Amino acid sequence: MDAHRPIPPRLLRTVGALPEPGTLPEPYPYETVTPRREGFVERGGVQSWYAQHGDEGPWLAFAPIFQIANSHMLRGVLPWLSQHYRVVVMDLRGNGRSDRPDTQDQYSFDHYYADFVAVLDRLEVDRAAVVGISATAMTAIRLAHEQPQRVSHLMLVGGWIERRMDHPKMVEAVQQNLARMRADWPAYLDEFFTVCFSEPHSTKPYEDAVRDGWAAQGAHVAMGLAGWLGNDMRPQAQALRVPTLVIHGDKDGRVPYSQGETAAKLITGARLVTVGEGGHLLPARDPVAFCRMVREFTGLQPPRSTWVRAMARKRKALFVSSAIGLGHVQRDLAIARAMRAQQPDLEVDWFTVPPASAYLEREGERVHPITARLANESRHFERMAGEHDLQAFFALRTMDEVMARNFMVFAELLQQEHYDIVIGDEAWEVDYHYHENPELKRQPFVFLTDFVGCLPMEEGNEREAFLCADRNADDIEHVARYPWIRDRAIFVGNVEDTPEVPFGPGLPVIREWTRRNYAFTGYALPFDPKSLADTDALRARHGYRRDEKLVIAAVGGTAVGAPLLHRIAETFPLMKRAEPSLRMVLVAGPRLPREAFPQHEGLDVLPYVHNLFEHLACSDLALVQGGLSTCMELVATRRPFLSFPLERHFEQCIHVRKRLHNYCADCAVKFRELSVRELADKALETMAAPVRYKPVETDGAERAAKEILAVMENRHWAAG
């Protein structure tokens, strides 16, 4: 009944339309890791779900949180923690994958505690660091008191130490809350999590938390809350002799800061870490800070380490390259080679994942072994894509689990090894978490990008517009407060390639802000166009005949472009009838099976083409997705092409098209607006038409390399 109440405007603007009540977030509970073991424990006919993530290292057990949340809340921290610990999570009865009993007698502190102990017994956890968040801090304290041999470390995060109900006003307030839970669940969720996330720009953790709460029902959560009330763990806390860390935000509006202070005073030897200006749920709002506190408190250290004397260290750069497609890494390699040409003793390590890492290894580059532990950005984007449709802003917004995990791996590497400089090409995870945790920056950092500003794509979509502006404002405030995080920000392009529109209502115009905060290097090509001017030689090298009309269709290194390739394959018989000498090559990439495409004489399907730009440079026509790199390479080699920007992809539809327009090369076609017959006719017409592109600058990689090396040398301030 409560689920059918009107959705509060603030919730609707931030979270959007909600699914059916009781629906768990998808994927659940995590996107980037799967359990080592999982199952259910049953007590009194109630089943509680649990999971173990990670199969080596010490045990780390999260006591099950209050029923308004579930294990999904730990998505920012568990994927990295499970690389070093055997992590135990469970859903408390009333939410997640656990049962939802309908009677109050099934919701009590004794049941919650016994469920947790049953999971530890099932997994044969003999000794663990135990984390208690919010109300479940009382569960953790009770375990440390009743089974002290089982608890190696105790962490209380924004925790209650007592929920006594001995004051009439408190009883009245709680009764009002319970009534609101039952009567208007959406409004209660909005109010509850707005209080929890008091920090600015917390729209994503707020959204996740609301969806976690929506997986339960107000009536069940009300019974769940009643089970927490009336308990007092202060006497047990006073008797503890376990290493204890108490973490509490001084602006926690859900659990008073005084609760953390009391716990720290009562537990012998406890250490209190105050999160200045912090709200209630640190693991969800500040996952990097939380993971660092867990690691440091539990004493996690690598088994071996090496310290190299400063003057014996080789010059080394770490290049963090976005793996969404192959365009970034090809231009990054061109920049790295230009850097080594100017600084011959410089070594470069790469920090990326397939397909970018495979390309680099084939080019003889060193991809750091630690990257095997990274989550794959491309898989995330593929999961978010529809039929030639990718809401790129929301794909970036929901990549926070990937970003937190990958940044923690990055931070580990930077703690273990020395680099003179870090270069990040659209390394959003490094840039964001450095700004949120500025104390972690240990060496110069250069940030590269070819677009600035997330822009809404759906007219009338107030939620998209609001969230885009919020993300942009967060970035702007980061740069203003910590300009030294980016020792240099490089825009891979020219000033006129940036749009003259505001970041959002009341925010700066993108072009003017970018002009003030970036250096411009022009586009960075991975080749010299003059070296590819002899198309006959290129065709001979790659097995194409001089007398055939060559059409190459390519969609990058992900499976997002599968619908486009299939549509292009359908045009082949029509084009072949009009142009008998036609040969078409579909570059399907490593993620699309060749057998999924039709077989025709003259139609080739290739899983991977190394240095595809050489093949494109000798084609008569290219049919490509709307990514910047491939389009700019075609402009540079003056090849006719059609591009098919993904629908709702703000970068391809706005930023890339703006740039191509500047080069007189806006050849965009809307995927859904042409039939197969019309697309075939359009392709044949484009193949026969002359090109009139403006030339692409050829020194972009060298200019970018010069900017980066100037940062590393740190002598811009010296007199010439």
Question: Topology of this protein?
Answer:
Layout lengths: L8 H7 L21 E7 L2 E8 L5 E4 L15 H4 L4 E5 L18 H14 L5 E6 L3 H10 L4 E7 L10 H16 L1 H12 L6 H12 L3 H11 L5 H5 L5 E6 L7 H10 L4 E5 L6 H4 L1 H12 L17 E6 L5 H16 L4 E5 L4 H7 L3 E2 L9 H8 L7 H6 L2 H17 L4 E5 L2 H9 L8 E5 L12 H20 L6 E4 L18 H8 L1 E2 L14 H8 L6 E6 L7 H17 L3 E6 L15 E4 L5 H5 L4 E5 L2 H9 L4 E4 L5 H13 L13 H13 L11 H14 L7
Parallel strand pairs: 3-4, 3-5, 5-6, 6-7, 7-8, 9-10, 9-12, 10-11, 12-13, 13-14, 14-15, 16-17, 16-19, 17-18, 19-20
Antiparallel strand pairs: 1-2, 2-4
Helix pairs in contact: 1-19, 5-6, 5-8, 6-7, 13-14, 13-27, 17-18, 22-26
The parts where pLDDT drops under 50 for at least 5 residues are none
Number of helices: 27
Main CATH class of the largest domain = Alpha Beta
What do we call the CATH homologous superfamily of the largest domain?
Alpha/Beta hydrolase fold, catalytic domain
Oligomer kind: single chain
Percent of residues in helices: 25-40%
Fill in the CATH topology of the largest domain: Rossmann fold
Major β-sheet annotation: 8 strands, mixed
User: What is the number of E strands?
Assistant: 20
What strand line-up does the widest sheet have? 1-2-4-3-5-6-7-8
Average pLDDT across residues?
Answer: 95
Global structural class: alpha/beta
* Large-scale geometry: globular
Number of discrete domains: 3
User: Separation of termini?
Assistant: 75 Å
GO molecular function: hexosyltransferase activity; hydrolase activity
Keywords: Hydrolase
Protein name: Alpha/beta fold hydrolase
Pfam family, one: Glyco_tran_28_C
